Amino acid sequence: MSIRLESTTKLKLLCSLLLSFIINVDCLTMSTGETRWQLFNHCSNAMLQTYLGNINARGSSLRLCLTDFNVKVNRLGMLQLQHAQSRKYVCFNRRKRVTVRIEGDNIRCFFIERLNEQGYTEIESAWEPGLFLGFNKRGRFQDPTTYHKKRKCFYWTKSERFVPNSELHRCARQQKKKLNHNLTTMPSESFYRNMAREQLLQRIRATEDGPYNIKNFTTL
């Protein structure tokens, strides 16, 4: 009887250790600061943001306090989107609608990053495969059942920004740089987003269709 109790105790301990190993999340954080993401939606042509407990895709890239997100990735490759200012998590609710929560341990708050053939990022729910995060032209939540009809509303471009520890708790609007009108006009943000996407696609093509792919070798 004592042997069975001892084996049961060991089994429970092993299960608890395994569970903590899976749930344990590593944030993209360094000792000198942390890396934050901004997500640009290609249907609303604006950034994902949260404001007063609401979430939409009408944000400006200059409003860092509203559009910055910390990204936490666990050992299974699932990620969490935590708003950098409010520390609330982006989640799906039971009705498969997007919301924000103070605690993000629920499986509905975990996502998987997908890269499609066009070079855009798609954010899929880890809770239910095939459930993607999207927003319409007005920046409002897009019904996930329209994924195949309105695919563009589920396209994202991700940009990363490193924030040093000295600026982590600052919440001020990013100032626009004054340009000298006598100089050549600087490219727009969309130009840089498209350039980054093209570079990513070139890497994919070099890997999949390039001359160094073993599938492309011809036998003599």
From TrEMBL:
Keyword vocabulary terms for this entry: Signal
Zinc keyword on record: no
Residue stretches spanning the membrane: none
Highest taxon in the source lineage: Eukaryota
Signal peptide bounds: 1-27
A Pfam family of this chain: FGF
Entry's Gene Ontology molecular function annotations: growth factor activity
Protein family per UniProt: Belongs to the heparin-binding growth factors family.
Entry protein name: Fibroblast growth factor 17
Organism the protein comes from: Cylicocyclus nassatus (Nematode worm)
